[in-house]
Amino acid sequence: MNPEQEFPIRRVIDEQGQLVGDRSQVSDAQLKDFYQWLVTLRQFDQRAWNLQRQGRIGTYPPYSGQEATQVGVVAALSHDDWICGSYRDWAALAYAGVPLHYPLLNSMGHAIAGHIPEQVQALPVQVVIAAQILHAVGLAWAAKLQEQNRVAVTFFGDGATSQGDFHEALNLASVMQVPVIFVCENNQWAISVPLNRQMHSPTIAQRALAYNIEGIRLDGNDIVAVYQTMREVVERVRSGQGPVLIEAVTYRLGAHTTADDPTRYRPPEEDEQRRRGEPLSRLQNYLQRSGLLSQDDISSIDEMAKETVDEAVQTAEAYPAASLAETFEHVYGELSESLREQRAASVRGGAAHG
Ligand SMILES: Cc1ncc(C[n+]2csc(CCOP(=O)(O)OP(=O)(O)O)c2C)c(N)n1
Ligand SMILES: [Mg+2]
After folding, report:
1. In angstroms, what is the C-alpha Rg of the chain?
2. Per-residue pLDDT tens listing for the chain (354 residues)
3. Cβ 151 vs Cβ 179: under 8 Å
4. CATH number for 60
5. Residues 48, 34: Cα–Cα separation, whole Å
6. What are phi and psi of 272, to 5 degrees?
């Protein structure tokens, strides 16, 4: 078997922004809406990075480069479907309806960032690598037992596929035939560990074979490929045809988090080459080539995005500073003696971040 041939990368718009496939399942209006989202999310992510550098928020994990996968996947879901992601999936949550300022609150130490608004069917972001994959299987299984017409989607990284939780989740989902879609955001790196040191198999999609479920590999920087594939997959999974594993091949443009410096471990030539496929300029090139976006449109969308991001920052910064005592809430029903002592000490010590 040649896995790269068995699991070819699905692509509709290439790196230069040229149409190389069928885009009949996505309207011009939908594409322009995606573009606005991608611009806003990219600006937000860059602003969050700057805020951390200015000491206004704590550690932040940027998602730049992965917006097309996150937005394209969520766009194909219904409001009732579950979303279970990691710390890098705030773009997916924003598109699903979580207010844009939530990741800022999260990086400022506010527990409220873990409280997903009622109208959004999502779990709080998960930091324990791969844990959310099992949670998604549980939610999907529950939906099946309760005969709800819902699917669950879980996002996770390439590194997460080395965890036992990933394999347990795929096995259980396959045995119970639950309506879950596994979306691996293969951004090529697990902090400083490259993909080829993480696994010997050339693709992640081929792992579906071991569990006898469908595996699909697609260009995660091509929002049209992501959205159209997801629409097809959601329909099949919802109709009870079992789980699907999607490998979205993408790239983390920035650092792992604001605490990381990728220039210490990424070869510059490879970095340069991978960057060329990034999702925002690709979509912009395609829209411009097709006459769907003018220079004026680009400027006004940039301006609107800036206002939206400014507002999000103002909203987050209007919260009173988080107290370190909040750290002790929402984890244990009852605190142990030593945690009670730590909480008392933290209250004497002052605010959470600075
Ligand atoms: C169970 C567990 N082990 C280790 C870590 C430390 N850790 C945080 S992020 C990360 C790498 C994850 O890489 P990947 O799954 O590719 O996701 P990405 O950060 O690239 O989105 C590791 C090992 C953790 N958070 N949880
Ligand atoms: Mg990764």
Report:
1. 20
2. 898 899 999 999 999 999 999 999 999 999 999 999 999 999 999 999 999 999 999 999 999 999 999 999 999 999 999 999 999 999 999 999 999 999 999 999 999 999 999 999 999 999 999 999 999 999 999 999 999 999 999 999 999 999 999 999 999 999 999 999 999 999 999 999 999 999 999 999 999 999 999 999 999 999 999 999 999 999 999 999 999 999 999 999 999 999 999 999 999 999 999 999 999 999 999 999 999 999 999 999 999 999 999 999 999 999 999 988 888 888 899 999 999 999 998 888 754 443
3. yes
4. 3.40.50.970
5. 21
6. -60, -45
Q: What total of structural domains would you count in the chain?
A: 2
- 86-89 own/partner pairs: CB under 8 Å, 24+ apart: 86/125, 86/126, 86/127, 86/129, 86/132, 86/155, 86/156, 86/157, 86/160, 87/61, 87/125, 87/126, 87/127, 88/61, 88/62, 88/63, 88/155, 88/157, 88/185, 89/63, 89/125, 89/155
Residues 303 and 349 in one domain: no
Atom of ligand 1 nearest to the CA of 127: 25
Q: Which of 191, 247, 253 to mutate to test the pocket of ligand 1 (most atoms within 8 A of CB)?
A: 191
* Ligand 1 centroid – CA 160 distance (Å): 7
Residues in the chain: 354
Same domain, 305 and 244: yes
Q: Does 349 lie in the same domain as 281?
A: no
pTM (two decimals): 0.96
The residues that bridge with 19 in the sheet, in sequence order, are 13
Q: Are residues 342 and 216 in the same domain?
A: no
> Is 208 found in the same domain as 166?
yes
Give me the amino acid identity at 106. Answer: N
The bound ligand whose nearest atom lies closest to the alpha carbon of 63 is 1
Residues 276 and 166 in one domain: yes
Domain boundaries, position 94: 3-319
Which ligand is closest to the CA of 61, given by its number? Answer: 1
Same domain, 248 and 330: no
- Residues 171 and 201: their CA atoms lie apart, in Å, by 18
* Of 96, 162, 170, 165, residue with least CA distance to 126: 165
Q: Which atom of ligand 1 is nearest to the CA of 160?
A: 15
